[in-house]
Automatic annotation (TrEMBL):
Example GO molecular function: 5'-3' exonuclease activity
rRNA-binding in keyword set: no
Protein's name according to its UniProt entry: DNA polymerase I
Catalytic activity: DNA(n) + a 2'-deoxyribonucleoside 5'-triphosphate = DNA(n+1) + diphosphate
Assigned keywords, A-Z: DNA damage, DNA repair, DNA replication, DNA-binding, DNA-directed DNA polymerase, Exonuclease, Hydrolase, Nuclease, Nucleotidyltransferase, Transferase
DNA sequence: TTCTAAGCG
DNA sequence: GGTTGCCGCTTAGAAT
C-alpha cells in the first residue's frame, strides 16, 4: 500500500487506534459472548482477536465516531521499557498481568493488522501514546480530521479542534452503570476534566495516576488540582508561587513535592516529537486484499466476519483456503512462533475437526512407544537444547516426580518433558539412593543442580507462547508453585478426558493410555515397589526412573494429541475452557491455603466421645446379654434379629442381616432400647474415628488442614474432596456440629459461609419450566410450602408443618428420580399412599413428568445427558438388559442434569471469585467448596464489604452465558467458626 | 479387596 | 411373578 502514498491534508480523515487498549477492550467484549466463539479448535484463545478484527473492519468500512477514514494506523507498544522507565523506574510498576487468555493471543494481533493490509506501527523506547500524539499533531496541523480510538484517558490530552477521542463501550459495566467516555471533543474534555486538553498533564501531575503508578502530590485529588490550576494558570506557575497558597497543609505538601509533580508531568505528558517509524502518507487506506484477509480469518476459524467480508467483496468462501502462514504469531524467527500453529493438522489447513480426530487416533495407534529412546538429561547443555526444542515446538508435556504423594509437602525429585514428535526426557534433580553413586550431601552424582535446572525451565514454563500439557496438573502446579514457578498456559489431559468422557471410565493416565493408545504404562508400584518394600521416588535408580517418568510425559503428549481435537469436534470446547481449565489454579490455591482447625477442641471431643462409647458399649452388652463387637454390623444383626428375634429384619445382598440406621430407628420407635443405643454408639464412633481422631493427623505446623479436591471424580461435574474429605464435616446433629465448630479462622479474621439456597430445585424449575415453581421462587415463597399447597390444596396461610415436610421429601425424591417405594420408605407411609402422592404431584406439575420422560428417552437414544452449560454425563448402561439396573441408571440420568448444572454454576462462581475479590481490593480467601457452599477466610474489618460481593458473584454466576428462569438466592454469614457461619 | 454403615450436599 | 428400589461422593472398620 505504500505505493499509493500521498501526503495527508485537508479533507483527509485519520483514525489512530491505540492497539493495546483496543485489544483489551476487545478481549472483555469477547468475554460476554459464548465461550465457543472464543477459542479455535486447537484451544488457542481467539476471542479478543475476533472482536479486534470485527471492530477494525467496522472502522475501515464505516468509520469511528462518525468519521470515515482515509488513513488509519494501529499503534502498538513495542516493549515494556519506554523512556519513562528510564526517568522513573517504577512507571507502570505494579500493573496486574493481562489475563492468560489475552496474553496468548497478543502475538497474533500484528498478523491481524497485516492481514488487513495495514502496517503495525511501533517504536522501541516509545509508548503507543507518544506515536499517536506525534501523528495526531502532524495530521491536525495539515488540516486533516483525527479520531483517536483508545480507552486510555491520558490520550484525551491530544483532543483539539481537529482531534476527537473515541472509546467504544467496554463489555463490562462498572458500578452504578458507569460507562467509559466516548466520542469527546474539546467541550467534552472540559466537561470530563474541568480543564482544556492541554492542561490534563498538569492535572495528572498533581493527582498522580495509580494505574500507571505516577506518584503526583499526596493529598491532592482532581477537584483540588483543577481549582489550583484555575487559580494559578498552569503547573509551573503554581509550583513557583506555591508559597501563596492559603491552606498551610496544602502549601507545605506542594512545596515539598514540587519535584515529584514535575517528574509526574514528564511521565504523563505525551511526546509529540516522537520520531514516527512510518510516515503519515503510508497510512493511507488502500483497497483491502480480501482474499488474504479471508485466508487469515479462516486460519483463525472466524465465521461471521469471514462471511461478511466474502459478501462485501463477492468472493466464494469455499474457494479461499485458510493460510496458517498468515497467523504465525510474532514477526521474527524465534519469537513464540508456534502460538498460531499449536495442534493444527500439519500441512493440512483444510482439516476438519472430525478428520483431525481420526488422523490423530490412527497416528497414535501406529506410533510405537519406545522407552529405550528416552533421554536422561544430566547437564545444562542437553537441558538447554531440550528447552529450545520445546520452545520451537510451542508445546511441551510436563510431569513432576516427587518424594511423596502430598503436593503440599512433596519435594521435587525430577521433571520429565515430552514433545509432539514422540521424544521424551527425564531430568533427575534430587535422587538420593538406589544403586547409583552419591556424594557427601546424599545426592546421586550426575544431576543438574536443582536451582540451575529450575532457573532454566522457569521462563519456558511461564511463557504464554508455549503451551504446557499435564495430566492432573493441579498436583504439578502446586509442587512447582512451591519452587516459585507459576506454570501457564496449561492444558490438562485428565480434564479434557473428563469433559469428553465423564461416565465412560476412569480418567487416570493408565486408564487413558490403555483406552486411547492401546499402551500399557509402567506402574508406579513396578519402579517404587509396593507394600512394605515401597520406597519414595528419590530412592529409585535414575535409569529406571527415566523410563517411568519420561513415559508419563510421552503418554501425556500422545493423549493430548488424541483427545484435544475431540473438544472442537464434539462441541465441548466451551465446557473445557470455561468450566475446567481455569479452575485448576483456583482449586490449587484453595488447597494450598488450607483451613485452620482447633486441635484442642478436637482432642477434648475425642475424650468425650471415648467416654460415651465405653458407657454405651457396657449398656449394649448388658442388654444383649453377651460381649460382642458393637462395631460389627454382622454381629449386631445376629444379636438383634437372631438371638433376640426382633421383627422386620432384612438381609443385605450378601445374605447377612442388614442393620442400617433406618431399620434400627424403626425398632427403636417400637420401644426396643438396644437399637437406640446402637444408633447412638455408631454416631459417636463415627464422629470420633473419622473426625476428631483423624483430622489432627492432617494438620500442618500452622494448624491448617489441606484437603485435596478432585476435579474429575464424579460423573456429574461435582468436585470431590479427600485426604481428608472436608465436604462431609458433620452438621446434622448437635454432637456433630461440635466437630464443625473446630474449624476456625486465623486471629483477626472471620469465616464466611455462603450457600445457594435450593439451587437444585431452582434448576429443576428452570429446566422443566414449571410455572408454579418459577412463580414461587420469583416471589420468594417457601418452596416446600408452596409445593404442599399446590399438591394438597391447602392455602399457604393454613399450611401445617407435617404437609410441608411431606412436600419437602417429595421434592427431594423428584430430584433423585422418585419411586413409590423409596418415597414410602422415606415418609414412613404405605406404598399406595406414596404412589398416590406421586400421581398427584405429576398431575399438578406435568412438566416434571415430561422432563423425566424426555430425559430418559434422550439418554436411551444418545447414551448421555447434558447440563444447562453443555457438560455431558454418559450412561452407557442405560441400555442394560437387567430391568433393575436400567431403572437405576434412568434415575441417575434424571438427576445428572440437575446436580451437574448446579455444579457448573458454582464452578463459574469460583472461577470469577478471585478476580472479583482482588479487583475490589478485598483480602478474602476462598478455602473450601461443599457443592452448594463456599467457605472464605476474611479480615474482620472487611466482612461487611465482602459478603455482598461474594453473594453477587454467586448469584450472577450463570451470566452471561445463560439467564435462568428463576432467581438464584445466596445466604452468607460470618462467624468465628464454621458451625456458626453455616 | 469388598462390604456395610455413616458422614455430607 | 418376585425383587428392588432416591442422586452424588469418601472414610472407617470388619470380614474376606
Amino acid at each position: 500500500m505504500s505505493g499509493k502514498s500521498s501526503a495527508i491534508g485537508k479533507g483527509d480523515r485519520l483514525i489512530l487506534v491505540d492497539g493495546s487498549s483496543f485489544v483489551f477492550r476487545a478481549f472483555f467484549q469477547s468475554m460476554n459472548q459464548d465461550a465457543k466463539y472464543n477459542y479455535r479448535s486447537d484451544g488457542l484463545p481467539t476471542g479478543a482477536l475476533r472482536m479486534f478484527c470485527v471492530k477494525l473492519w467496522q472502522f475501515i468500512r464505516e468509520g469511528a465516531a462518525g468519521v470515515k477514514p482515509t488513513h488509519l494506523a494501529i499503534v502498538l507498544d513495542k516493549s515494556e521499557g519506554s523512556f519513562r522507565r528510564e526517568i522513573y523506574p517504577e512507571y507502570k510498576g505494579h500493573r496486574p498481568d493481562a489475563p492468560e487468555d489475552l496474553k496468548r493471543q497478543m502475538p497474533l494481533m500484528r498478523d491481524a493488522v497485516r492481514a488487513f493490509g495495514l502496517i503495525p506501527v511501533e517504536l522501541e523506547r516509545y509508548e503507543a501514546d507518544d506515536l499517536i500524539a506525534a501523528y495526531a499533531r502532524e495530521a491536525a496541523a495539515a488540516g486533516a480530521e483525527v479520531v483517536i480510538v483508545s480507552a486510555d484517558k491520558d490520550l484525551m490530552q491530544l483532543v483539539g479542534p481537529h482531534v476527537r477521542f473515541y472509546d467504544f463501550e467496554s463489555g463490562i459495566k462498572g458500578k452504578n452503570g458507569y460507562r467509559p467516555e466516548r466520542n469527546l471533543d474539546v467541550e467534552g474534555v472540559i466537561e470530563r476534566w474541568g480543564v482544556p486538553p492541554e492542561k490534563i498533564a498538569d492535572v495528572l501531575a498533581l493527582t498522580g495516576d495509580t494505574s500507571d503508578n505516577v506518584p503526583g502530590v499526596p493529598g491532592i485529588g482532581p477537584k483540588t488540582a483543577v481549582q489550583l490550576l484555575e487559580q494559578f494558570g498552569d503547573l509551573e506557575t503554581l509550583l513557583e508561587r506555591a508559597g501563596e497558597i492559603r491552606q498551610p497543609k496544602r502549601r507545605e505538601t506542594l512545596i515539598e513535592n514540587a519535584d515529584k509533580a514535575r517528574l509526574s508531568r514528564k511521565l504523563v505528558l505525551l511526546d509529540e516529537k516522537a520520531p514516527v517509524p512510518v510516515p503519515l502518507a503510508d497510512l493511507t487506506l488502500a483497497e483491502i486484499d480480501a482474499q488474504k484477509l479471508i485466508a487469515f480469518f479462516k486460519a483463525m476459524e472466524f465465521t461471521t466476519i469471514t462471511k461478511r467480508v466474502a459478501t462485501e467483496y463477492d468472493i466464494d468462501l469455499n474457494a479461499v483456503e485458510a493460510d496458517p502462514e498468515l497467523a504465525r504469531g510474532g514477526d521474527s524467527a524465534g519469537e513464540s512462533g508456534a502460538a498460531g500453529e499449536v495442534g493444527l493438522a500439519e500441512g493440512d489447513p483444510q482439516a476438519s475437526p472430525e478428520r483431525l480426530v481420526k488422523q490423530r487416533r490412527e497416528e497414535a495407534q501406529g506410533l510405537k512407544i519406545d522407552r529405550e529412546a528416552y533421554e536422561c538429561l544430566r547437564d545444562r547443555d542437553s537441558l538447554d537444547k531440550w528447552i529450545a526444542d520445546a520452545r520451537e515446538a510451542g508445546i511441551v508435556a510436563l510431569d513432576t516426580e516427587t518424594d511423596s504423594l502430598s503436593a503440599h509437602s512433596a519435594e521435587l525429585v525430577g521433571i520429565s518433558l515430552g514433545l509432539p514428535d514422540g521424544r521424551a526426557c527425564y531430568i533427575p534433580l534430587q535422587h538420593r539412593g538406589g544403586s547409583d553413586l552419591f556424594d557427601e550431601t546424599g545426592l546421586v552424582k550426575g544431576q543438574i543442580p536443582l536451582d540451575d535446572a529450575l532457573a532454566a525451565l522457569k521462563p519456558l514454563l511461564e511463557e504464554p507462547g508455549t503451551l504446557k500439557i499435564g495430566h492432573n496438573f493441579k498436583y504439578d502446579w502446586l509442587v512447582l508453585a512451591r519452587y516459585g514457578i507459576e506454570t501457564a498456559p496449561v492444558d490438562d489431559t485428565m480434564l479434557i478426558s473428563y469433559v469428553l468422557d465423564a461416565g465412560r471410565g476412569g480418567h487416570g493416565m493408565d486408564d487413558l493410555a490403555e483406552r486411547h493408545l492401546g499402551h500399557t504404562t509402567i506402574k508406579f508400584a513396578e519402579v517404587a515397589g509396593s507394600g512394605k518394600k515401597a520406597v519414595s521416588f528419590d530412592r529409585v535408580g535414575i535409569e529406571e526412573a527415566t523410563s517411568y517418568a519420561a513415559e508419563d510425559a510421552d503418554v501425556t503428549m500422545r493423549l493430548w494429541r488424541v483427545l484435544q481435537p475431540r473438544l472442537a469436534a464434539e462441541a465441548k470446547m466451551s465446557v473445557y475452557q470455561t468450566l475446567e481449565r481455569p479452575l485448576v489454579p483456583v482449586i490449587a490455591c484453595m488447597e494450598r491455603r488450607g483451613i485452620k482447625v482447633d486441635r484442642q477442641i478436637l482432642s477434648r471431643l475425642s475424650s468425650d466421645f471415648a467416654q460415651t462409647l465405653t458407657r454405651l458399649e457396657e449398656e449394649i452388652q448388658e442388654d444383649a446379654g453377651e460381649r460382642f463387637s458393637v462395631s460389627s454390623p454382622r454381629q449386631i444383626g445376629e444379636i438383634l434379629f437372631g438371638k433376640l428375634g426382633l421383627p422386620g429384619g432384612k438381609k443385605t445382598p450378601s445374605g447377612q442381616w442388614a442393620t442400617p440406621a433406618s431399620a434400627l430407628e424403626e425398632l427403636a420407635e417400637q420401644g426396643h432400647p438396644l437399637p437406640a443405643k446402637i444408633l447412638e454408639w455408631r454416631q459417636q464412633a463415627k464422629l470420633k474415628s473419622t473426625y476428631s481422631d483423624a483430622l489432627p493427623n492432617y494438620m500442618d505446623e500452622k494448624g491448617r488442614v489441606h484437603t485435596s479436591f478432585s476435579l474429575a471424580a464424579t460423573t456429574t461435574g461435582r468436585l470431590s474432596s479427600s485426604e481428608p474429605n472436608l465436604q462431609n464435616i458433620p452438621v446434622r446433629t448437635p454432637a456433630g456440629r461440635k466437630i464443625r465448630a473446630a474449624f476456625v479462622p486465623e486471629k483477626g479474621m472471620k469465616l464466611i459461609s455462603a450457600d445457594y439456597s435450593q439451587i437444585e430445585l431452582r434448576i429443576l424449575a428452570h429446566i422443566a419450566d414449571i410455572p408454579q415453581l418459577r412463580k414461587a421462587f420469583a416471589d420468594g415463597i417457601d418452596i416446600h410450602a408452596a409445593t404442599a399447597s399446590e399438591m394438597f390444596d391447602i392455602p399457604l396461610a393454613e399450611m401445617t408443618s407435617e404437609y410441608r415436610r411431606r412436600a419437602k421429601t417429595i421434592n427431594f425424591g423428584i430430584i433423585y428420580g422418585i419411586s413409590a417405594f423409596g418415597l414410602a420408605n422415606r415418609l414412613g407411609i404405605g406404598r399406595e399412599e406414596a404412589g398416590a402422592y406421586i400421581k398427584q404431584y405429576f398431575e399438578r406439575f406435568p412438566g416434571i413428568r415430561d422432563y423425566m420422560e424426555e430425559t430418559k428417552t434422550y439418554c436411551r437414544e444418545y447414551g448421555y445427558v447434558s447440563t444447562i452449560f453443555g457438560r455431558a454425563c454418559h450412561y452407557p448402561a442405560i441400555r442394560a438388559g437387567n430391568a433393575n439396573e436400567r431403572m437405576a441408571v434412568e434415575r441417575q440420568a434424571i438427576n445428572a442434569p440437575i446436580q451437574g448444572s448446579a455444579a457448573d454454576i458454582i464452578r463459574r462462581a469460583m472461577i470469577r471469585m478471585e478476580d472479583a475479590l482482588s479487583g475490589s481490593k478485598l483480602h478474602a480467601q476462598m478455602l473450601l467448596q461443599v457443592h452448594d457452599e463456599l467457605i472464605f477466610e476474611v479480615p474482620e474489618d472487611e466482612v461487611d464489604q465482602t459478603i455482598p460481593l461474594i453473594t453477587r458473584i454467586m448469584r450472577e454466576a450463570p451470566h452471561p452465558a445463560l439467564t435462568l428462569k428463576v432467581p438464584l438466592e445466596v445466604e452468607a454469614r460470618a462467624a468465628d467458626n464454621w458451625d456458626e457461619a453455616h
